[in-house]
């Protein structure tokens, strides 16, 4: 499978319909800096300079508006003197506005041309800004009438800032996605030459039918079926389940699982690109590229709004010319164009959606796309997966049942001694429950892959192996010596301390809560 093309600016994977950039923000940011994201400080510098110049334009414009706002500053000035001062103020605003147009206006126009998005929010913005600049330049040259350089430059700077923030948010989301799903994986041991030779290869080189050996503590590099061996698998990174899963010949296993206590030979059933881990990465990539309903609405609105606004602007000019004159009619038409831009949909919506997805991933919450977040506002019932969500990734001992004259404390001490050097979740729970109450050191220790452990204590051989639990909500292991069972230990997932307060807050919001679990 061919790797997806990356955005010219932030290297985010592109959809098939995208040519160079993943979003209009990256297109504008790239045009601002003329380089990739590594040189993003150049874009920020141009943006800050444009903002400072735009504030200067506002100072000149405020001086021009002074008479309308506060009245005449002095009665000592003649009409010619006032006209000269107003001319200088218009010229000053023009001089400062031109660099703003070059710094941020031209890159926005370049982005629209590259993306062929004339019927878009950016196209509508450019239309309004161009009209404001043209009218203001004409009035400055004629030496009469109002100028709107401040409006034009402020709109350009705000739009450029929004697009730059969108590009940065996309880049940050890409970084968090890469951290969530690391690209590097340990090599796999592929069995070759009729099982007589093993060779290290990259997981992406594995093909369906290849035999792969997984050593104790090793990571399964590919989805497949066990053809030899038995082991407990830690699948918490994939499913959130804290309890290890036993795998033996004939069982299907997933890439990303960890063999805790035994070696396996697995026949690959998928290629590198089809592994579950790779599918996760593609789903998240598609989630950030996908257009949510509100974003699709923004595209549709922009598509028909531009022709409609042009029609309304021309109609306003035609109707108002006979009533108030051509200059005032042009101002009215310009007002229609400037206020019609759907900035909330075209600028704020994609920016907020990108930030929300990025923040969710930072917190370990995998969201497939913006549509999920939009639908969340209409939710009335929250359904939790119990294991790994309402509970932690650890087990705790909840009950000990002793048999054949053995006390609970004695049985727990024996079990803790057998499991003292194991990193299995059940072993950690038993050792933690026993504390310092342990029996003598174990001899002849043996791991029973997929079952438990065996060892000798005080000259007697013991086994600690999985047994039938009284409830599907529990995990049980039994302590045996020969055919005699001395104890059964029942363990359960430890509840998260914050689970109860969270459920209380949901109830206060009027949301009901349910638990999705296989427990009886």
- Order of strands across the biggest sheet? 2-1-3-9-4-7
Share of β-strand residues: 15-25%
Low-confidence stretches: 35-39
Average pLDDT for all residues: 78
General shape: elongated
Range of helix content: 40-55%
**Count of individual helical segments:** 15
What class do helices, strands and sheet pairing give? alpha+beta
Biggest β-sheet: count, sense, barrel?
6 strands, antiparallel
Measured distance between first and last alpha carbons: 43 Å
Total beta strand runs = 17
Number of individual domains: 3
Please tell me how large the radius of gyration is: 34 Å
Descriptive report:
By secondary structure, the chain is α+β, with helices and mostly antiparallel strands. The protein folds into three domains: 24-180 and 325-361, no CATH class; 188-274, Calcium-transporting ATPase, cytoplasmic transduction domain A; 388-495, Calcium-transporting ATPase, cytoplasmic domain N. It has 15 helices and 17 strands. The strands form four sheets. Strands 2-1-3-9-4-7 form a six-stranded antiparallel beta sheet, with no helix packed on it. Strands 11-16-15-14-13-12 form a six-stranded antiparallel beta sheet. Strand 13 (452-457) and strand 14 form a beta hairpin. Helix 4 (121-142) runs antiparallel to helix 5 (149-180) and helix 13 (408-418) packs across helix 14 (425-434). The relative contact order is 0.09. The model is unreliable at 35-39 (pLDDT under 50).
């Amino acid at each position: 499978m061919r790797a997806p093309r990356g955005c010219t600016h932030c290297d985010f994977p592109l959809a098939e319909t995208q040519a160079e950039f993943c979003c209009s923000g990256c297109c504008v940011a790239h045009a601002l800096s003329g380089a990739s994201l590594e040189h993003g400080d150049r874009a920020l510098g141009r943006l800050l300079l444009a903002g400072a110049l735009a504030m200067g334009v506002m100072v000149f414009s405020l001086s021009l508006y002074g008479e309308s706002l506060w009245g005449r500053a002095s009665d000592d000035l003649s009409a010619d003197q006032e006209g000269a001062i107003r001319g200088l103020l218009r010229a000053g605003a023009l001089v400062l506005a031109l660099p703003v147009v070059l710094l941020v206006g031209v890159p926005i126009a370049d982005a629209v041309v590259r993306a062929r998005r004339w019927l878009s929010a950016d196209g509508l913005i450019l239309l309004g800004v161009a009209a404001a600049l043209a009218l203001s330049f004409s009035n400055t040259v004629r030496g009469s009438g109002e100028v709107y350089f401040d409006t034009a430059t402020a709109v350009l700077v705000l739009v450029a800032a929004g697009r730059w923030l969108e590009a940065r948010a996309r880049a940050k989301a890409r970084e968090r996605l890469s951290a969530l799903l690391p690209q590097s994986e340990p090599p796999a041991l592929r069995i070759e030459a009729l099982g007589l030779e093993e060779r290290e290869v990259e997981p992406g080189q594995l093909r369906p039918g290849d035999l792969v050996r997984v050593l104790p503590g090793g990571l399964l590099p590919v989805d497949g079926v066990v053809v030899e061996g038995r082991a407990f698998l830690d699948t918490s990174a994939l499913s959130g389940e804290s309890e290890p899963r036993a795998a033996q010949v004939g069982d299907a296993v997933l890439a990303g699982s960890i063999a805790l206590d035994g070696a396996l030979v697995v026949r690959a059933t998928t290629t590198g690109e089809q592994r579950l881990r790779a599918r996760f990465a593609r789903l998240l990539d598609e989630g950030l590229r996908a257009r949510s309903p509100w974003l699709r609405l923004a595209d549709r609105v922009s598509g028909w709004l531009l022709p409609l606004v042009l029609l309304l602007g021309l109609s306003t000019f035609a109707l108002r010319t006979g009533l108030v004159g051509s200059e005032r009619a042009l101002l009215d038409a310009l007002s229609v164009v400037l206020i019609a831009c759907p900035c909330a949909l075209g600028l704020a919506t994609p920016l907020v959606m990108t930030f929300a997805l990025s923040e969710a991933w930072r917190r370990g919450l995998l969201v497939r796309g913006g549509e999920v977040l939009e639908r969340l506002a209409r939710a009335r019932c929250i359904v939790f997966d119990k294991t790994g969500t309402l509970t932690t990734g650890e087990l705790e001992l909840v009950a000990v049942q002793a048999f054949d004259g053995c006390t609970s404390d004695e049985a727990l001490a024996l079990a803790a001694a057998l499991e003292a050097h194991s990193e299995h979740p059940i072993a950690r729970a038993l050792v933690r429950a026993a504390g310092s109450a342990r029996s003598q050191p174990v001899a002849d220790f043996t791991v029973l892959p997929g079952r438990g452990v065996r060892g000798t204590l005080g000259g007697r051989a013991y086994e600690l192996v999985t047994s039938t639990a009284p409830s599907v909500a529990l995990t049980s292991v039994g302590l045996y010596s020969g055919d005699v069972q001395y104890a059964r230990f029942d363990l359960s997932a430890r509840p998260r301390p914050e689970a109860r307060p969270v459920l209380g807050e949901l109830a206060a919001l009027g949301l009901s809560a349910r638990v999705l679990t296989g427990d009886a």
